[in-house]
Amino acid sequence: MTDHHPLVTTTRGPVRGERRPSGDRFLNIPYAQPPVGDLRFAAPVPPEPWTEPLDATAYGPTAQRKPFADVTIIPEPTIPGAGVLNLNVFTPRAEQAPEEGGLPVLVWIHGGGYVAGSAASPWYDGATFNRDGVLLVSLGYRLGVEGFLHLSDAPDNRGVRDWIAALEWVRDNIAAFGGDPAKVTIAGQSAGGGAVQTLLATPSARSLFRAAISVSGAVMQPQDRAQGHAVAGLFTARTGVPATAKALRDVSYDELYAHQDALNAPGTDREGGLAQMLLTAPFADGDLIPEPVTGVLTDGGTGADEKPLMLGFTRHEFDGMGVPGLTDVIFRRPNLTIAEGRAARELPTWLYEFRWLSGAEGPMRGQAFHCLDLPFAFDALDAENVTEVAGPNPPQRLADAMHGAWVGFVRDLDPGADWPRYTREARATRVWDTETVVTDDALKAEREGWLG
């Protein structure tokens, strides 16, 4: 290891990273082979081993080929290339690791509606977590049609299989970076929050992490096998292309995105069960994911997981973004339902609502909208584009409180003594605002209106 380029040996080969004041970072480490050719719609395959040190000083290719929208809140770069199944490790220096075991680990899964997003965002830098003794891993995964469309001749939920492959890499390699594979917390926002909830309902992922944080989780319900197959039928009806790996394997990215846009366009053929769905998203295939996720997390089931869970949402989510119907149906109501169901089963659950209002100029001013909470949780108020979405001088005190709760949860499986669990007897809810408080049943009106 040199002073500026630390060297770590993984199970597949050595990687050379970059030393920063906050710790060491290793970018673009492959956890699976590039999903191209015969592997494009296959389950992830471990990378071929290498012997010479792999340069891990720049972010690698992203599965995102175009942003989620013309203007996005989170800066998420698109990086060309085939090796999209890569991850990034941000770790404190080795001397900061405890004498026994290793550092707690936070594995971050980006959002983007399951069709976009990038682990290369400056908002997801692990420097502040490293400062506070937490190792952070961020990962890329297959999106859209490649990751989630049911194909009759390919495994379902390929994006979910990518998450699991990345977690298996963490299990096998993170100790070499100073982390403890027995102290892994998974976390994500929006589609990433939905990923977290999906993994909680996936039996084969159960041994790969010990706790979870779901931020504005995009909860697909019921999203069962029948609906997954119905989406495949809609794809063929709208594009004229069979929903098979054989038919799509050699289709260019531009063509595939055109097909994906056609699938997701509004229309009368999306009435009923498909109307409120993100069409390329995880679904209960009866195999990898045995049952619909929301039902498992609410009522228990084949894949029920009783691990500690912190979850919540922003006050307004998509209310001011010109997207009708999403805020309550996909974000707030299902997550409150999950909190209630877990409380009924006396599972360790912490619920929050982010209410701090943006001071930025423009149509989002005065709202606690989707994604606004992330720079506070990451204590990254000086990151790119934060001032544009939060306004001048966002409160550092709020970032200190949120980030501190995350660190406490990852380290101790508890966000702190001043934030009690959400139970049926006392529905303690953390309200993140200029003054952060814990309120007894802060969402009572919503709970009674939505859940009866």
Task: Name a few traits of the molecule.
single chain, about 450 residues, alpha/beta, eleven-stranded mixed β-sheet, three-stranded mixed β-sheet, 13 helices, 14 strands, about 30% helix, about 15% strand, globular
Structural write-up:
The chain is of the alpha/beta class and 452 residues long. The protein has helices spanning 127-131, 144-148, 158-173, 191-200, 225-239, 245-248, 253-264, 293-299, 326-344, 374-377, 386-390, 396-412, 444-451; strands spanning 7-9, 14-16, 18-20, 23-30, 54-55, 86-91, 103-109, 135-139, 179-189, 211-215, 309-314, 349-354, 428-432, 437-440. It is built from 13 helices and 14 strands. The strands form 2 sheets. The protein has an 11-stranded mixed sheet with strand order 3-4-6-8-7-9-10-11-12-13-14, with helices on both faces. α5 (225-239) packs across α7 and α8 (293-299) runs parallel beside α9. It is globular, with a radius of gyration of 21 Å. 51% of the residues are buried.
